[in-house]
């Protein structure tokens, strides 16, 4: 609303009766009160107060302004009460974006979130692309690798995904297994063909495996794990997934440098909204079903 400060000032003078009382109530200088009234009267082209030696006498127009200001205050208070009541309701669309391989891990959390808030309608967007949270493309982004650095986003750690370097029994039977990194040049490996892979284990692989030993590449992490299971070559598999395939052989002892950091990202403008807060709080609960800590 244009000139709301000036309207509030004039209404306070009309209500309290004196400039001094209005200045005290609004915690401003008397000169500010006079300036606001002059500005408002100049805009209206009419007098709100008659000045005399006893002070300011409210005109009919000034009394009308007081009525409008009080009605506006009441309407805004109703709006505020409505907003507070709405903030307690968790409903509507809730969008989560992540790489596809996180689906099996985040879906138990989504199931619990839906159970607690049945009026929520969740969208899960599986993509390698980074959603533009500032444009409302998602409420929550689940990201892996290096910590996101966008200053407009709130970033929270969500655990680590442990990775292991594995080979299948069929690979071992055909080619044997390396006993150390120096043996890698005599073996067959599976790697990413992404120009700038975000996962630390892929950087480690690129730094330690000769290019000539890489016999298959893919831009899809689950495809790399599947290739290991099929015996095409040696490669990285999440340890949780490896536990479901008892025959997999760990080629080297686990290195913490391989593990993937997981981050929960939300935009600063919606971070405190009820939907986002409820989901983030749930993620922190052991009962949520989220396996990474």
Automatic annotation (TrEMBL):
Belongs to the LysR transcriptional regulatory family. InterPro entries: LysR-type_TF_proteobact-type (IPR058163), LysR_HTH_N (IPR000847), LysR_subst-bd (IPR005119), WH-like_DNA-bd_sf (IPR036388), WH_DNA-bd_sf (IPR036390). It comes from Allopontixanthobacter confluentis. It comes from the Bacteria. Pfam families: HTH_1, LysR_substrate. PANTHER family: HTH-TYPE TRANSCRIPTIONAL REGULATOR, TRANSCRIPTIONAL REGULATORY PROTEIN. One of its GO terms (biological process) is DNA-templated transcription. The keyword Glycoprotein does not apply. The keyword Transcription regulation applies. PROSITE patterns: HTH_LYSR. Keywords: DNA-binding, Transcription, Transcription regulation. Residues 1-59 form the HTH lysR-type domain. One of its GO terms (molecular function) is DNA-binding transcription factor activity. This is LysR family transcriptional regulator.
